[in-house]
Amino acid sequence: MSSRQAISFGFFVFLLLGLTNIYIFWKRDNFQYIPKATDQNLYVPASEISTNPLTIYADDELVWAKNKSKEFVKPNMSSSEKVKAISLFLLNQFHDQRGIPPPNLMHVSARATYDALNRSKKNQVWCGHFGHLMLLFTHVNGIKGRYIEVFNPGNHHVFNEFYIPEWGQWVMTDMYNDIVFAKNMEGTYLNAQTFRHAVNSPRGIAVLKFSQKNLVDTILDKLAEPIVSYHTKANPYYYYTTTNLDQVYTFTNKLKRHFGFSPWYYIYNDNPNSNAKHYMKIFLFISWLFLGIWLIIERFKTKA
User: φ and ψ at 69, to 5 degrees?
Assistant: First the structure.
């Protein structure tokens, strides 16, 4: 093959790879890198996987939450006591307003959610709103938290985890289902995954639960509680680093995620996540890039 023929063939392959890369970018959700969450990277004390409230809440919202929480959070409280106080306050305020939100409350800030619930007892919100309220008030009181979504076929549910330094571990809190903390029968506090294992075992689960305007210790009724249906071995859990979709879907962040950087969630799933499509995408892009450089060099050579 002559040099001119090689360049012509190379140009044809370059165009083919370019069109393939354009198609992959168009269908990028099918080729994106899937960051896998594991017990090792989630549940060590120094875990960096948490939801960053500074990407979600405005500065004035943070100031408002800090001032508001002074009504029910005392400076000398431990982290676990703060979580209890925040949970009790919010559940006493809004326990009976759980349900399907009206269209104007579907996608609003935590502060707007709080104001709307106070403005009318007819307003209802779902689990995601409670998750954002908890994350806001715990953050301004120095507690690291997570916004977690578990997907059940045809449905999904949102709850939180918080890191409790005095216990040295992450613990699950599910406001929508009145659960502040959960423990196994040996007295060990449970995170989302140990709760899931406990739900699917014959052993009982002790919960600190909201009931009649107080927090009471009781045993979880696995047959009656709707929460149990979400925590099956087959359902994936999404651990979000942010829930600010305006930020997530900027062109810059979409481009970063296209090449495997800046994930906005991690997936915990018993089924291993395959990133074969992502690595193929990277290979095709690098091939296109180097082929383009080679064509430019060869073109200069033929002109020289």
Answer: -70, -15
The DSSP letter of residue 176 is: G
Cα separation, 112 vs 175, whole angstroms: 18
Parallel, antiparallel, or unpaired: how do β-strands 205-211 and 214-219 relate? antiparallel
Confirm whether 150 is domain-assigned: yes
Q: Tokens 């075992």, residue?
A: 201
DSSP label at residue 231: -
Tokens standing for residue 262: 């800046």
| Measured distance CA(252)–CA(196) in Å, rounded | 36
Q: Is residue 254 part of a domain?
A: no
Helix (H, G, I), strand (E, B) or coil at 11: helix
Paired tokens of 8: 């012509």
Same domain, 29 and 112: no
Same domain, 15 and 89: no
State which residues form the domain around 123: 38-246+264-273
162-199 pLDDT, tens digit per residue, is 999 999 999 999 999 999 999 999 999 999 999 999 99
Answer yes or no: is 253 within a domain: no
Q: Give the helix/strand (H/E) hosting 144.
A: none
Burial class of 203 by CB neighbour count within 10 A (0 to 12, 13 to 18, 19+): exposed
237 CB-contact burial (10 Å; exposed 0-12 / middle 13-18 / buried 19+): buried
Q: Longest C-alpha distance within the chain, in Å?
A: 87
**How far is residue 69's CA from residue 50's CA, in Å, rounded to a whole number?**
22
- Where is mean pLDDT largest: 22-31, 58-67, 295-304? 58-67
What pTM value is reported for the model? 0.88
